[in-house]
Every structure is written in structure tokens, then in C-alpha cells.
Amino acid sequence: TGLWVITSLGANAERLVEVDLRTGGMDVVSEDPLFDVTGLLINPVRNTLEAVRYERERMAWVFLDDSIRGDFALLAGIGEGDISIRSRDSSDTGWLVRFSAPNRPTAYYHFDRGAKTIAFLFSEDPALETESLAIKNAIDFVATDGMTIYGYLTLPVGVEPRDLPLVVYVHGGPWTRDSWELDFPVQWLANRGYAVLQVNFRGSTGYGKAYQNAGNLEWGGKAVQDLVDGKNWAVMQGIADPRRVAVMGGSYGGYATLAALTFWPGEFACGVAMKAISDANLFMNSMPHQWTVARGRFEVRMGKDPEFLTRISPLHKANQVMGPLFIIHNANDVRVRQEHADLMVAALRALGKDVTFMVLPDAGHTGGAGSSNLMRRWAAIETFLGKHLGGRIEAPNNAEKWEPLLR
After folding, report:
1. By the 8 A CB rule, do 132 and 155 touch?
2. How far is CA 82 from the centre of its chain?
3. Residue 27: CB atoms within 10 Å
4. How far apart are CA 232 and CA 234, in angstroms?
5. Average pLDDT, rounded, for the chain
6. Backbone angles phi, psi at 143, to 5 degrees
7. Average pLDDT, stretch 266-276?
């Protein structure tokens, strides 16, 4: 007679409502004015709703059934991390528990509710269990226009957080968000001595409709200004050396890297752009035919007027690039075709700009065609960042040699 529905209808953020199928009435079960509901915990025996999950700075549970509150309190003894229940037996006395944190491998436990015992089962990455991984800290700052922007800062282990080289690592999508979780590229960068700033710029998801809609038609505007403001915040905190800051990302993050270096010249010492859109008109005109719904979303959020798309295209401002740029593209990318990289590199080289270009074979937009491409890509990035920011460099082994992929 009723449905639980997660919806943003009538609210800023996605909330949980219960709809009465007999009367059509709707009651709000749980809501947050800013953060979206991301999951439910339902009792497998009684089919009753026990808790609602939000992703705020970290995962947060709102308990609707006090009988499980004590269970989560016991599970908190595992350590400083986020807890989710992956499975429960038919008697609801045995739970399979997932424990995640940004500075340790994701682990699984068996929780015996009757005996109140917690037994470790396994971790996803046993080799990391003895490593010193960096913690990810939730941060926020006020952007130039007064909007509060959220994100995460990861600092290298055992290093004083003063005047560090900084990498602003931009997520793709852009309709997604960075989270408080184990993030392998971030850990790698921190291991090499870099502070890592992940900005959930306007347009990112998870923070409600107003936050996401604030990024509409701001791809080359305020969404990138948020990255600059985040960098300046880290500098003002004394954490980052303003002369040693890079911007880096893939997909939308690659576009944002190009946009940051073209529309905000001098703000970043260098950039690494992976599978990046350089010409917004080319992207719209070469969009896969099956992207019928996606096209409408891009038109609303990125824009559709050809003159406007030209204005937000880094390709047409290549003359403004000041720092060294490393462009990496995947040869079989059908979402962002290699033509974007070819055109951008040609424009930069015609202007005498410092650009390095690498193409990964047999790789699509989301895939790297195996670990060899992955390792060669990161070995090349490590060398580039080390040269321009001064971080540690590990000499590549034979499987990581990337020079043959340069164009």
C-alpha cells in the first residue's frame, strides 16, 4: 500500500518520502536541506525501514529504529572509518560489514549480533595493510562570488604541511563528486610529496539541486574559478607554495585543466589534461548518436549556442597558456575523440608553447586497455610533475617506459 521514494521533487536535495498508494498522500521520512539521500537500511525479516544514509563530508546514518543504534556503536570500534552493511542472514543475527576509510584498504568483517563479536574476514588490498597512507580531510571555502564550496585535502605523511607542492585534482563527470574514500591516484600523489586538493566545484552532485544548477553554463566560468579559489585558499592557509601548483584531471577534469590554463593564465605552474574536451562545438557535433538524453543534459548544463561554446573552448585561447602542459589521450575514445587533443597540441606547438603529448593505444574513454597503459601513464605524469613541481620520481621499469607513446 505504500512506496518509499528517494526524490528531489519539492525539495533542494534528494530526500526519502513515503507515498500512500491508496490516497496519493506523501509524507517526508528523512531529509537534509543540502545533502542527498544515498541509501536505505531495511530489515530483512520485518521489511521495516531502520536507517537512511547520507553522504555529507563523510557517510552519515540517520537511525529510524533505535534497536540497531547500539550495533553501529559497536561496529564503530573497528576504527575511524565509514560503515555499511553489505548483507544480513535470514535470522538477522549475522551481518557482513564493509569498512572503508581513505587511509586504509577497504575491509570486510563478520558481525555476530547475538555474541556482540566482530571478526575480520579480508581486505580488498592486503599489500596496503602495512603501508602508511595519507588521511583525506574534508574542507570548505568561500568562492569569489560568496558561494561555499566543498572538497577534500590530502597531505603527505610525515611532512610538515607548509609550502608544499600542490596538485588540484579535478574529478570527471562533471555530474559526480569526490568522496571521503580510499583514492589510489590521490595516495600516489601524496606518496610523491604532493598535497592534493579535490574541489567539488559547483555543478558537482550530492549537494542538492541549487549546488548542481549553479554550474549550469559555467564550464569555462565559475566552475573553473572554484578551482582557482580552492588553490588560493590552500595558499592562504600556508599549505601550498603558490609557485608549485598543478591542475590535473581527466574527461571533464581534463577540460577544466585546459580551461584553467587558458582562461586563468599564470594561476597554475603546469597542467596535466587527460582525455580532455578542447573544442565544445566539436564535442557536441561528434556526440555518439545514442546519447539522446545525454545531449539534452549537456545542452542545459554546458550550453548549445555555437558562439557560446566557442567562447568556452580552450582551443580558441591556446595563445594564453603560460605554463607547461601535458596532454594525454586514449586512441579509441569515442566520447572525446582524439581530434580534441590533436587540434590543441597543434595550436600550442604553432605558438611555441611547452606541450608534451602522449597517446595510449587500445584504450577507450573509461578504459585503459590493461595495467600496462595505466602504469605508463602514471610513470609519465610522475616525471612531468617532478620536473615542474619538484616531487619525488621513481625510475620506470621496462613495463612502465612511456617515451615510445609520445607524439
Report:
1. no
2. 18
3. 10
4. 5
5. 95
6. -75, 175
7. 97
Query: What sign does the CA torsion over 285, 282, 328, 273 have?
Result: negative
DSSP state of 134: P
Which residues have C-beta within 8 Å of that of residue 383, sequence separation ≥ 6? 393, 396, 402
**Is the separation of the CB atoms in 44 and 92 below 8 Å?**
yes
- 226 has pLDDT over 90: yes
CA distance 13 to 177: 15
**pLDDT tens digits for range 242-267:** 999 999 999 999 999 999 999 999 99
C-alpha cell, 198: 579535490
Does 372 score more than 80 pLDDT?
A: no
Neighbours of 1 (CB within 10 A): 7
CA distance 234 to 227: 11
- Do 214 and 225 touch, CB atoms closer than 8 A? no
Query: HEC states along 223-292?
Result: HHHHHHHHHHHHHHCCCEEEEEEEEEEECHHHHHHHHHHHHCCCCCCEEEEECCCCCHHHHHHCCCCCCH
For residue 108, the cross-strand partners are 98, 122
DSSP letter at 12? S
Distance CA 170, CA 175 (A): 12
The owner of cell 590533436 is 342
| Under 8 Å between Cβ of 12 and 208 | yes
The residues facing 245 across adjacent strands are: 166
Model confidence pLDDT, tens digit, residues 165-218: 999 999 999 999 999 999 999 999 999 999 999 999 999 999 999 999 999 999
- Give me 398's grid cell: 621496462
**CA-angle at 198, arms to 240 and 176, nearest 5°:** 165
Which cell is 100 given? 572503508
What residues are labeled active site? 251, 333, 365
> At residue 364, does pLDDT exceed 90?
no
Is the pTM higher than 0.90? The answer reads yes
The three-state secondary structure class of 377 is helix
What is the per-residue pLDDT for 394? 94
Beta strands in 124-239 (DSSP E): 136-142, 148-154, 164-170, 195-200
pLDDT at 368 over 60: no
